[in-house]
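re: ur question from yesterday

yeah so i grabbed the chain u mentioned. its 143 aa long if i counted rite. heres the sequnce exactly as i have it in my notes:
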Amino acid sequence: MDFIETVTLTAQCQYILAVIHHASRRVRILGTTAHPTHAWVTQVLRNLLMDLEDAGQPSTFRFLIRDRDAKYPAMMDEILQTVCIAPVLTGVQVPRKNAVMERWVRTLRAGPRPDPRLERGPPASCAVGLRAPPGSSHTRSSA
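ran it thru and got these structure tokens back, copy pasting raw so excuse formatting
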């Protein structure tokens, strides 16, 4: 679980709360807000647990890895323990402990990758100003 800070087109700072299921690599965007309060984080966590229960998946989650951000309330750990999910805190400045989430965040920040088929461009014989090799059937006529 991690907060991703982003800036919208209107220059407003938004915090996105996301969680990744490590086994399936499924990402759940839990919510976004300009001001993450303890009450908001607690409610989002309760919503996540209800969604997991509705899907019949709460028993598949045993740990929740998160950093030591002050945005997470102490009540969050108590809520997790009631459903037998153990909170695991990462060390200070140890992003490798939550590497799957950090990699996903880095992918988001990099933006969409262009289609590699478009990077190559048109074939050399179709490019403007290039001539086909002598003797080929693709010679350009000089008009």
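noticed a couple things. The chain has one domain: 2-113. also Strands lie at 2-7, 13-21, 26-33, 63-66, 86-89.
anyway ttyl
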